[in-house]
Amino acid sequence: MKRIGEVGWVEKDIPSIGPMDALLKPLAIAPCTSDVHTVWEGAIGERHDLILGHEAIGVVEKVGSMVKTIKPGDRVIVPAITPDWGTDAAQRGFSSQTGTPLGGWKYSNEKDGSMAEYFTCNEADFNLAILPDDISPADACMLVDMWSTGFMGAENASIPLGGSVAVLGIGAVGLSAILGAKLQGAARIFAVGTRPVSIIVSKEYGATDIISYKDGDTSEQIVEATGGEGVDAVIIAGGGPDILIDAIKSARAGSIISNINYFGQGDTLPIPRVEWGFGMADKDIHTGLCPGGRTRMERLADIVTYKKGDPSKLITHKFNGLENIEEALFLMKDKPKDLIKPVVIIDD
Length: 348
Ligand code: NAD
Ligand code: ZN
Prior knowledge:
It is built from 11 helices and 13 strands. The strands form 2 sheets. Strands 1, 2, 3, 4, 5, 12 and 13 form a 7-stranded mixed sheet that branches. The chain has a 6-stranded parallel sheet with strand order 8-7-6-9-10-11, sandwiched between helices. Strand 9 (231-236), helix 9 (243-250) and strand 10 (251-259) form a beta-alpha-beta unit. It is 27% helix and 20% strand. The model has no long low-confidence stretch (mean pLDDT 97). The longest helix has 14 residues, at 143-156. It folds into 2 domains: 22-141 and 310-345, Quinone Oxidoreductase, Chain A, domain 1, CATH 3.90.180.10; 149-287, Rossmann fold. The chain is an alpha/beta fold. It binds nicotinamide-adenine-dinucleotide (NAD) and zinc ion (ZN).
């Protein structure tokens, strides 16, 4: 990112590392909708010559003097969110919010990201997970943000076993939320979206009902399909501010509206007063930033190893070589109809 609205290449020194950190070379990297928000919407404010990228699998080049379990040559899963594990927020169980709100989000935010020949990881022992031999770097790249965020959407929704859930928005994050909801034991899963490639994957990941928000009011369609009741949980994974109205209207009493969406507009967000029971409807709103850290990544990898989910289904476009990252990023910006997620393989 050269500045808001402009990307290009920049020459920088190989980054230095602290005693608990690791220096890495990427094996695979993926651009994210968040990179698009950062560059073209100025989501995190102005930045000059910031290296983008927070979704990567890497190989360790060098480690700091205090690193005990990670060594040069290790192939590692690098979470998008790399918390400072000794902080108060981490100890209270909110590791993604260390230091400042969203403080666990360091890559392409408070430091250079992974779309580079070299990048670093803080607290390597606690943030990096060894990449199992049976998972390719490209597939594993889908775990570090997409699966971790989408699954968190389902976890935060506290979906009852056999319950119903609506996932609003079926890009890579929403699709991951669908798989997360299935793994959490949801029986009926509404996928709300229109992209044909996403509809195919949503069914493969466990969706039972497809709703098009372009065919009429989302909440009316969901309420009608559930006999006037609404669903036990709603996961918001796309859309603008008004999607909160859809979510609250689609939810029944005792529900959780789990938001994993980024809201880039407006100083306030709308809540429909009547359908929210004038503030007393037992419809709770839960928010969260993607969970990071080693244990989280190891568990996501186990889901692949033990065949409970297939991350390769999210990948629609593969490139080879770092020089193609620009094309992949522009795909993410332009979102052609056949795109879910592009990945750039540097070495596998
Ligand atoms: P995406 O753009 O691929 O998918 C979102 C989809 O929602 C799009 O297909 C869009 O057409 C659709 N949509 C728009 N309006 C809608 C409506 N009214 N109803 C239903 N669907 C609607 O994006 P993505 O990569 O899947 O990411 C989804 C969101 O998650 C983004 O805002 C992203 O910034 C955010 N995100 C959050 C975290 C986190 O930690 N919480 C992490 C990664 C991404
Ligand atoms: Zn991302």
